[in-house]
From TrEMBL:
Residues 9-23 have a biased composition (Basic and acidic residues). The lineage of its organism: Bacteria, Bacillati, Cyanobacteriota, Cyanophyceae, Nostocales. Transmembrane segments: none annotated. Residues 148-300 form the Transposase DDE domain. InterPro entries: Tnp_DDE_dom (IPR025668). This is Transposase. Residues 1-23 are annotated as: Disordered. Pfam families: DDE_Tnp_1_3 (PF13612). It comes from Nostoc sphaeroides CCNUC1.
Length: 349
């Protein structure tokens, strides 16, 4: 039986057409749903889910003892689905299924071939309600992702818009939390994502603040247990911040404002400072590939889940933006420049 276009449009306006009726069903709304099914990390996620569902304690030091091909009893609480649907991609090839009102094939594919990963599929609205329960486990999982400070660090902030500018006054979800900020492209309403990465493009530290927070304010908290050099833009110029970081064996190197005089710095620092665009490439991939920014959030928790899941998705990229430094280059930097033996003046260029 073929449904008329007027009747289909009427049902879509009511909230979406339900397909694959039964216990395992997916709602198809006007909003796009992105489902990413991981293969290599599925056992780790499932093990964490079963421990949380059963009320057991999580040992952060033990490795997963579940083999990839072992039979695992399906969870009844949908916790596995919440984590694996939160944009955690497979290392190598991410299986992305964009489900909208015109994508019937993707819906059937998930229901038929991924029943092990999604034993109890729920409606889209119900999934949005359950998504907040995955926030803490996702933060824990992101903390366990491999990362290290090698002595060459880049810092920057990027905007996270939560709505269009003309809708800022009517936004109720982030009332009292989000604020106005200004980026290189103009004013926006939302938050800031502060990032620190190393020369391999790995995320070392991050922090989310309202958009009106100064870029320099979260730096001391983000650079704990760091060493070496920290390269930033003009927004991080501060004598007080420079002296504070120098006590932690961190040398802050920033670009120069128009009304400031040039100061000599080592040629290696000058070259690395010109490579600061590396972190801007990371910000671009987080927004366009991991999709950490959109304007359809319905709760603060779901906003955080989307950002954390996007950061986890980035850590599984095979090719991250990198400086491609050799071991010899790193040894040279470590011997000569990463550990200053005497106090340094504010080094800018």
């Amino acid at each position: 039986m073929v449904m008329s276009s007027k009747k289909a449009l009427k049902q879509d306006r009511r909230g979406g057409r339900r397909e694959n009726a039964g216990r395992k069903a997916i709602w198809k709304n006007k909003d796009t749903i992105t489902i990413r099914v991981p293969k290599l990390i599925a056992t780790q996620v499932l093990e964490l889910a079963h421990k949380l569902d059963s009320g057991g304690k999580i040992d952060l030091d033990t490795k997963s003892k579940i083999a990839e091909n072992d039979a695992i009893a399906p969870s009844k609480s949908n916790f596995c689905e919440i984590i694996t649907k939160s944009k955690i991609p497979d290392q190598g090839t991410a299986h992305d299924f964009v489900i909208d009102s015109n994508s019937e094939e993707a819906t059937k594919h998930v229901c038929i071939f991924f029943q092990t990963y999604f034993p109890n599929l729920v409606s889209y609205n119900r999934f949005v309600e359950l998504e907040k329960s995955a926030l803490i486990p996702l933060c824990w999982y992101l903390h366990l992702r491999p990362r290290q400070s090698t002595g060459i660090n880049f810092i920057d902030s990027t905007s996270l818009e939560i709505c269009l500018n003309y809708r800022a006054k009517r936004n109720k979800v982030f009332k009292g939390l989000a604020n106005w900020g200004k980026s290189s492209v103009g004013w926006y309403f939302g938050f800031k994502l502060h990032l620190i990465i190393n020369e391999f493009g790995e995320i070392i530290s991050f922090m989310i603040t309202p958009a009106n927070v100064d870029d320099r304010k979260p730096v001391p908290e983000m650079t704990k247990n760091f060493f070496g050099k920290l390269f930033g833009d003009r927004g991080y110029i501060s004598q007080k911040l420079f002296e504070l970081l120098l006590q932690q064996n961190i040398q802050l190197i920033t670009t120069l404002k128009k009304n400031m005089k040039n100061r000599l710095i080592p040629i290696i620092d000058k070259i690395l400072l010109r490579k600061r665009s590396l972190i801007e490439t990371v910000n671009d991939q987080l927004k366009n590939i991991s999709q950490i920014q959109h304007t359809r959030h319905r709760s603060v928790c779901n906003f955080m889940v989307n950002v954390i899941a996007g950061l986890i998705a980035y850590t599984y990229q095979d090719k991250k933006p990198s400086l491609n430094l050799t071991t010899q280059d790193l040894n040279l930097l470590q011997e000569e420049h990463l550990f200053p033996s005497e106090p340094l003046a504010l080094t800018i260029i």
